[in-house]
Amino acid sequence: xxxxxxxxxxxxxxxxxxxxxxxxxxxxxxxxxxxxxxxxxxxxxxxxxxxxxxxxxxxxxxxxxxxxxxxxxxxxxxxxxxxxxxxxxxxxxxxxxxxxxxxxxxxxxxxxxxxxxxxxxxxxxxxxxxxxxxxxxxxxxxxxxxxxxxxxxxxxxxxxxxxxxxxxxxxxxxxxxxxxxxxxxxxxxxxxxxxxxxxxxxxxxxxxxxxxxxxxxxxxxxxxxxxxxxxxxxxxxxxxxxxxxxxxxxxxxxxxxxxxxxxxxxxxxxxxxxxxxxxxxxxxxxxxxxxxxxxxxxxxxxxxxxxxxxxxxxxxxxxxxxxxxxxxxxxxxxxxxxxxxxxxxxxxxxxxxxxxxxxxxxxxxxxxxxxxxxxxxxxxxxxxxxxxxxxxxxxxxxxxxxxxxxxxxxxxxxxxxxxxxxxxxxxxxxxxxxxxxxxxxxxxxxxxxxxxxxxxxxxxxxxxxxxxxxxxxxxxxxxxxxxxxxxxxxxxxxxxxxxxxxxxxxxxxxxxxxxxxxxxxxxxxxxxxxxxxxxxxxxxxxxxxxxxxxxxxxxxxxxxxxxxxxxxxxxxxxxxxxxxxxxxxxxxxxxxxxxxxxxxxxxxxxxxxxxxxxxxxxxxxxxxxxxxxxxxxxxxxxxxxxxxxxxxxxxxxxxxxxxxxxxxxxxxxxxxxxxxxxxxxxxxxxxx
Length: 688
What we know:
mainly alpha, elongated
């Protein structure tokens, strides 16, 4: 059983909760009713709003469509006006541009090109839309005038700013790098930077719009002229400085700016300066090889002045060859910036043609001059070809890339010149060898004192020059050979050919000298003549190093010449046999010491003294006028002869000095042994 109080309390609580719940339910019902009412009101409002929107839409859409049409019409009008303005502007181009075109592009190239662009567009417009318009002719005429002005400006800029390259700069350009202590690359600035930029702009416009290649012809003509003038200026510079100073060198270093790196003497292209002058000097040097002032070694006429001029010309030509390569390379670099790629090779070919033709023509003139000289039997003229040919061959690897892409006729100019020089040189060498063999034996042309013949000195001198250019001379001889060896072993083959050639010349010379020696009636003088010539040949070969080249094919040449020299010494010594025979012990009469001599014996002794005295005096008188230029050889021959004669005479004198064979001994005993020695010491010396 639940207590009554608790039940009442519980009941009241339940009733209170029930009442609260009822109140809550009533509140919810009221809220739902309000919500329903609000919903109805909202639906009514939305329905009304929708109705109004529909009405608004029905009013706005027609207005919108009308506005859109109006906007389209406005855009069309604006576009039409813009097109009209654009078209009308073409009709004003001629008027607006006429003043600028008339004044020209000088100093206002960018503005001028913009103006030309407008005229170009006007021309295109009228050609496409109104070809019959008189305005077309007007703008066309203006365009042509503008194009001509640009071409004129192109020409004027090139002409005004293209200058010959200074000779000193060219000499620096062709100097070798290994001689520059502080290397500074030498660059050529043919045109100022701003001028070059303008020329490139004009060139580009003429290519794109001018449709005219005349400016390329203008370019190569102007630049070709400057290239030729640069080479001529270099040649004149070398001539002037060489003739005034007498030295073939460039004053480039001395005239350089203070900030130029210090250089060693500028190396010339591979060339031995003074080829002909060097020949003269060598002749003097070898002629005086132990001469002690003797005369009659050579009868060559001094042509040193003419030879100096020739050397200057050769030196200048060789420098011009190197300069042409460098300048042509520089011209090609400049050309690639200005001329369109597909026209570069043809334009470059035309640009270098005049200078190259002049260079080749000068080389051909040298060859022709050498040929004429060879026809006159002046074989030394071929020496002018050697340094040029050697330099051409050295330069050819640089030449070929420069001429790459040019016409075949242009490429072949250098090889043809080289071939011409090789053929001429080889012919001259062969004819020189034949001339040595066939040189006539003429008494008036023979040295009276038996010294070295002019033919010998000239032949040796010529061969010495070949040594300076042995590779070139060998190549000349090889070029005339058709055997497989010539191509398979070019260097060794050339060396052997040159050695064979030198041996041939020496052999021909020896045969000719033997023939010439027979002109002398006195066998002793003939022997002295051969002795001098053989000795001169041998000493010259040894001194200049030719003997090594001879030994390539003739290993015993040196020994052979020494044997020939000894043979001639022995032949000469036989000239004293008659004199010595007078005092030879074998020919002396036998007699007893202290015995009285018979008249016949006394006369025999007198005859021997007289024969010896007369023979000694005659030989000394004759041989004193003879010459042995080599001091060592001369002293040796004197010494040997002195020993032979004085020894025999001393023995003879000792034997008969105390013998009473005459009342006037001073008449027969004219000389003491020391006096005889002194007389022999004066042999081969006209000044004694």
